[in-house]
């Protein structure tokens, strides 16, 4: 327990978001928000659309909602397909908790979960067709290492997709006051994340890092997650309801604040987030890329198909 919140015990202190019931509920809302962002889809890359998918890795699976939903989709198409979810915390939810977050699923038999550290050497003996990583900002010290290990553990033609929220807070007009608590919070969060060597602006480098790791057909897409109900589009209004992103650990561990001082400060931040006169949002960045076909996979498994045409950005 820390500041009244529960955090992971395995590799304690590595990640600054809690793993208690409140966080599980937030992750449920986050999963719903992504579904809205992707217009009902679970992911953006061509995996499973250009060739069959039989083995999938979900990095930083959290409550496992993405892995469960993907596993249910796979079960209809390929009963032998498997999804593996890996996280520092064993927070995969029972049915009761899933009902609480309005996502009442049980874990399908083709989905399994493991507690592990993604920054350690991966020891998988069979390569994956698709590696998925979402909202791991702040969880890793070396993103290039994750991309390199993903590349090494993919079959030729396999896909990696990674997506993260970013700071600083953005605004496309002059409604964001520089003296607001929200602006101060944005700067302090970013400062603290760099102090803890887990920067919250890392996603801006993903596209180049995937290319440096050897991926081809790399595509980057950017989305807006508004803080309140200022957007006219109904989808974006609902997205704003599911985003908070506040973290006690960044301020207490990174900046040395007391929990009491943080809560006092956050009262003003929450007020600003609800102020529809400020058209602020988070920039969410999704990047995906493909392992070339002219490479050998981890287990020398052949895909048995020719390369698909190069995908084009759809926005």
From TrEMBL:
One of its GO terms (molecular function) is methyltransferase activity. It holds the Pfam family Methyltransf_23. CDD domains: AdoMet_MTases (cd02440). Residues 294-315 are annotated as: Disordered. Residues 306-315 have a biased composition (Pro residues). Belongs to the methyltransferase superfamily. LaeA methyltransferase family. This is S-adenosyl-L-methionine-dependent methyltransferase. It comes from Parascedosporium putredinis.
